Amino acid sequence: MKIIRWILYGIVIVLIILVVAYYIIELGLRYPSLPPERPTNVPQNAHWFGGADGGYWLEFVGRTNEKYRFKIYHGSSGVLELDADFVISDSCSNISFDNKNFAEKIYNVLEDEITLKSKRNGKFCYLKPLYPAYGGRIWEILKQKQNYD
């Protein structure tokens, strides 16, 4: 009898843990985390892309022909990670946006790549930086490693 009781207690505990885990995950996915406090050096027109574990501020600077200039800032420190022209990946060249609608087209931002919500052939479209860049921490590291001038 005691063994059956302990088995039932174990099953109930596992079920409670599964229900709690489900609701934590479900709430986390439905309600994205708020952006951190904007660092003073991040412009007001920069948009937040990230979650509870961090992210980046993205500023759309402008567009020239098929090049989009963005500045990417570190989420909490505001350090300029990269200031560069970006081009859309080859398979996605028919995508276009401007300073008014760019934020709704972006899925994710990393320090040196911008992933778009659009997909082609089952893969996300993305913006890749062109070097030499205008500045930023990543650009300084690349210059040291690859002897860019």
Describe the fold and architecture.
The structure is a single chain. 23% of the residues are buried. The termini are far apart. The chain folds into two domains: 1-31; 47-146, no CATH class. The chain has helices at 2-30, 102-105, 137-146, and strands at 47-51, 54-64, 67-74, 80-88, 106-110, 113-120, 123-129. The model has no long low-confidence stretch (mean pLDDT 86). It has a seven-stranded antiparallel beta sheet with strand order 1-2-3-4-7-6-5. It has 149 residues and is α+β, with helices and mostly antiparallel strands. The protein is elongated, with a radius of gyration of 22 Å.
Core attributes:
elongated; alpha+beta; 7 strands; single chain; 7-stranded antiparallel beta sheet; 149 residues
Strand order of the largest sheet: 1-2-3-4-7-6-5
- Kindly report how far apart the N and C termini lie: 79 Å
Number of beta-strand segments: 7
Could you list the spans in which at least 5 consecutive residues all have pLDDT below 50?
A: none
* Rounded Rg: 22 Å
* Overall spatial form: elongated
Element-by-element helix/strand order: HEEEEHEEEH
- Could you say which structural class the secondary elements and strand pairing correspond to? alpha+beta
Q: Which band does the percent of strand residues land in?
A: 35-45%
Largest sheet: 7 strands, antiparallel
* Overall mean confidence score, pLDDT: 86
Counted up, domains total: 2
Helicity, as a percent range: 25-40%
> Number of helical segments?
3
